[in-house]
Amino acid sequence: MRNRPIPEATVARLPVYLRALLEVAEARGELTVSSEELAGMAGVNAAKVRKDLSYLGSYGTRGVGYDVEYLLYQITRELGLTQDWPAAIIGIGNLGRALASYRGFSERGFRIAALFDVDDGVVGEEVGGIAVRHLDELKESVVDQGISIGIIATPPMAAQEVAEKLVDAGVKSILNFAPAVVNVPPDVSVRKVDLSIELQILSFYQQRTQAIATAREANRRLGVRPPA
Amino acid sequence: MRNRPIPEATVARLPVYLRALLEVAEARGELTVSSEELAGMAGVNAAKVRKDLSYLGSYGTRGVGYDVEYLLYQITRELGLTQDWPAAIIGIGNLGRALASYRGFSERGFRIAALFDVDDGVVGEEVGGIAVRHLDELKESVVDQGISIGIIATPPMAAQEVAEKLVDAGVKSILNFAPAVVNVPPDVSVRKVDLSIELQILSFYQQRTQAIATAREANRRLGVRPPA
DNA sequence: TAGATTGTTAATCGATTAACAATC
DNA sequence: TAGATTGTTAATCGATTAACAATC
Predict the structure, then answer these.
(1) Are residues B97 and B181 in the same domain?
(2) Which nucleotide is closest, CA of B46 to its C1'?
(3) To the nearest whole angstrom, how far is the Cα of A132 from the nearest Cα of chain B?
(4) Across-strand partners of B112?
(5) Is the CB of A131 under 7 A from strand D?
């Protein structure tokens, strides 16, 4: 099934399959991989893997599996990773610094091309081999360096303003680490990573787990047996 | 509607409403807030807000809206944020350090209670006011300090082993920053934050945006008019 | 009462999954 | 051919949304 828009849920899993395939390719020996194996590595079930991959086209062989190299290439291409998307980080605080020196980005083919801040104590400093520039130079830098991804690592108050500057400079993809919702035109993609929210969601499930454990303990004391 | 399990999608949005409500409460003046306002701040639609909040119980007043303070309390309680869930970070590299000194956690009520690494060059060092201990002391520390959340910030190779140690120590909630899938028993919750995967997904949408722009440009040149 | 806004229903949409025919 | 595994169908499930009666 070609040329149908790929579901969002599938897009979100493609990078997971990609990583699993890279692992298989590294381990060598195996030239093909089954949906069952891939599912195990990705932590999903095999039907989902096959359905997801079917959106890219019919790249498997019945009775055999998927050619590792070929599938790697197809997913890489589908995700747009064959192209260079230089990124800029705005807000060079603790988090911005960690992101700027995060090895994982360059390993996965993403190039941090510029850093920005508004604090004169930070502007000019070199972080991870790149000099921090003033936010006022954002637009110029985006155009000159062909930056296509903006990574917001500012305090929440500044996030919306920075997002607007990025949009004004022509950036169409934003990764937002600031604990704030930013509003952008519909042709701009924003993904939000909020560390505190992740912990808060975890807190909910932790509480639930504990409630279950407490109930079980109460039942045990009362001599209630759980259903077989 | 009480005592129905709250949908996962709703749980994931509660922290967003919480943040919006905190903003409203800070701005004062307004003692109540409508689903419409809340939706605007959270970046969702009003029907979703009302549906989500209805899972917590009927805490709104028709024709008036939601009492800000009361709703704040209910969401806080529902998420388990009235309790103390001490967290430990394992892997004190760049990311681990950033997380250890991340203000957002303490602001949102999460306490980083312990840090662990296996590198003798790092063990003993103090990061964000806490001495890094050796991973071998994990279990002891988890029990002594009542740690209930484990934050994995190790290289991918170590992630599974660390997850098992956490589970063995009795931890039921794990936040995994390592670019690897970890397998845990079904009673343990894992949330995964993968910075590279976020960028890869963004790359897909960036590519799509660009493809659309290119197609539009081609149409323009050919004199094709978009449908009104 | 008139206006505002919730809580809930029901329709719709999208994602998941088991099952199996197709086919290597 | 027999065994293995894909690709696709169809059933099911869960999430979203518009609409509106209930009610402040």
Answers:
(1) yes
(2) D17
(3) 18
(4) B87
(5) no
- Chain D positions with an atom below 7 A of a protein C-beta are 3-9, 14-19, 22-24
The string of DSSP codes covering B16-59 is HHHHHHHHHHHH-S-SEE-HHHHHHHHTS-HHHHHHHHHTT---
- Beta carbons within 8 Å of A90's beta carbon, 6+ residues apart: A96, A115, A116, A117, A135, A138, A150, A151, A152, A153, A154, A162, A166
pLDDT digits 0-9 by tens, B26-44: 887 779 999 999 999 999 9
The reply to whether residue A202 touches residue B191, judged by beta carbons under 8 angstroms, is yes
User: Can you give the residue range of the structural domain that contains B129?
Assistant: 87-193
Instruction: Give the nearest chain A residue to B210 (CA atoms).
Output: A172
Average pLDDT, chain B: 93
Number of domains observed in the structure of chain B: 3
Burial of B50 (0-12, 13-18, 19+ CB in 10 A): middle
Token pair listed for A176: 């937002």
B227 has a pLDDT exceeding 60: no
Residue A34 and residue A62 in one domain: yes
Nearest by CB: B173 against A20, A87, A202: A202
Beta strands B149-152 and B130-134, pairing class: unpaired
In a domain, A161, yes or no: yes
Residue at a domain's end among B27, B49, B78: B78
Closest partner residue to B79 (CB to CB) among A12, A18, A200 is: A200
Chain C, protein-covered positions (CB within 7 A)? 3-9, 14-19, 22-24
Q: Using an 8 Å CB-CB cutoff, list chain A residues near B205.
A: 11, 173, 189
pLDDT tens digits, residue range A169-206?
A: 999 999 999 999 999 998 999 999 999 999 999 999 99
In this prediction, residue B228 carries a pLDDT of 42
Residues A218 and A189 in one domain: no
Q: Which residues contact A162 (CB under 8 A, 6 or more apart)?
A: A90, A91, A135, A150, A152, A154
Whether A103 and A172 map to the same domain: the answer is yes
The distance from CA A49 to its chain's CA centroid, rounded to whole angstroms, is: 19
pLDDT, mean of residues B45-51: 97
Asked if B100 and B128 count as a contact pair (C-beta separation under 8 A), the reply is yes
Length of chain A (residues): 228
From the CA of B1, how many Å to the C1' of C9?
Answer: 13
A 85-104 residues with CB below 8 A of B? 85, 87, 94-95, 97-99, 101-104
Phi and psi at A29, nearest 5°, equal: 75, -65
**Contact criterion met (CB below 8 Å) for A80 and B214:** no
- What are A66's strand-pairing partners? A33, A60
Query: Is B152 found in the same domain as B64?
Result: no
